[in-house]
Amino acid sequence: MALPSPRLPRRAGRRTNVGLLALLLLAGGTGVLAFAVGSPGPARLVVAAHGAAGLGLLLLVPWKAVVVRRARRRPAGRRGSGGVALGVATLVTLLTGVLHAVGVTGPWSWSAGVPVLHLHVAAGVATLALVVVHAWGRRQRPRATDLDRRGLLRAGGLAAGAAALWVAGEGLIRLTGAPGAERRATGSFERGTDEPAAMPVTQWFTDTVPEDVPATLELVGAGRRVRVPVADLDRGDAVRAVLDCTGGWYATQDWRGVRLDRLLGEHLGPDLPADGSIDVVSVTGFRRRLPLHDAGRLLLATHAAGRPLFPGHGAPVRLVAPGRRGFWWVKWVARVEVVDAPWWLQSPFPLQ
User: Each residue of 108-133: pLDDT tens digit?
Assistant: First the structure.
């Protein structure tokens, strides 16, 4: 006679699911934030939290396996939906994230020029969508008791274990000399430093390389509207800055052109709002708004590494915004407008 299987506590299953949900949401949130942060210090913290949250999912696999086995004993009509698809999507997301971090395939991909990082992002978006489908209608929710001493100790242990996994993984990458040891704090790989021709031609997914670009730049503000020939923008102002693309690559170049504060002062005068913003608009309609007080750090570049910009890299003039990710570096700039709206009153990522 077979012995009855032990009954598994419901609370353990609920806490496992809540823990998995928290890690998935943390991994998704920090993944989005990693695209926005360009400064090395904050970027390192965000990317570390993202990696630890992803690897932390592995720590809950044994407990989740018990929950899955228990769910299979339920009648077909009472089983959850989307569990298998969610598991596969999570596994693919984790695997592509590890591959990108290790750099085994390099920043560029297996085929068709699709970066591994893009596959990771696509799988992550699918995973979060499946999380919503899978969790919809379930009664397992966070409770006040999850914040008691025992619950906090468990959460702390999970966080410590996830952090330890990430540290061990990073140490292994460096110990083995894998290409990922050379990636930037943002997770990007070097490609084309001091060699603009070697930089990938990429743009935000809503943008395209234009066929025609204007020969003049329009400046608007303080009741004035001025057109400046692009040929007059090479004033010798220079900055060495890192272009860090969200596609998973970066390049350091000596950019040359004209400082934005200098250009605005010459043509729009000193009567600009001290707390204003600058709309930088591409010929394609792509735009980003930046604080006016940053104008002294911004450059309208016509050259990189002493050579005129290539069309795919924003020729004849592009914005250089040190410390910001690549989607802030507006290409094919057609208009710069000083506005009263605060710079942060825009979508975090371009929608146009």
Answer: 454 445 778 888 999 999 999 988 88
Matching residue, tokens 């692009």: 230
Q: Which phi and psi (to 5°) does residue 30 adopt?
A: -70, -30
Pick the closest to residue 130 from 195, 176, 82, 172 (CA basis): 82
At 216, which helix (H) or strand (E)?
A: strand 216-221
Nearest to 323 by CA among 41, 32, 31: 41
The alpha-helical segments, DSSP class H, found in the chain are: 10-36, 40-59, 61-72, 83-102, 116-135, 149-176, 260-268
Task: Pick the closest to residue 216 from 334, 330, 301, 338 (CA basis).
Answer: 334
Contact 86, 21 (CB under 8 A): no
What pLDDT shows up at residue 80? 54
Q: Mutual orientation of helices 40-59 and 10-36 as an angle, nearest 10°?
A: 160
One-letter identity of residue 311: P
Please check whether residue 53 is in contact with residue 155, taking contact to mean a CB–CB distance below 8 angstroms. no
Chain centre distance of CA 345:
19
Structure token digits, residue 51: 């990696």
Provide the pLDDT for residue 65: 81
pLDDT tens per residue, range 205-226: 888 899 889 899 999 998 899 9
Q: How many CA atoms does the CB half-sphere of 8 hold within 13 Å?
A: 16
User: Tokens for 62?
Assistant: 């044994």
Query: What's the whole-model pTM score?
Result: 0.85
- Give the CA angle between residues 33, 123, 140 to the nearest 5°: 80
Sign of CA dihedral 100, 104, 109, 111: negative
Give the distance from CA 102 to its chain's centroid: 18
Max intra-chain CA distance, the chain:
93
Find out whether 51 and 340 touch, Cβ atoms under 8 Å: no
Q: Which domains are delineated in the chain? A: 10-188 (no CATH), 196-339 (3.90.420.10)
**Per-residue pLDDT at 3 exceeds 90:** no
Q: Please write the tens of the pLDDT for every residue from 224-282.
A: 999 999 999 999 999 999 999 998 899 999 999 999 999 999 999 887 887 899 999 99
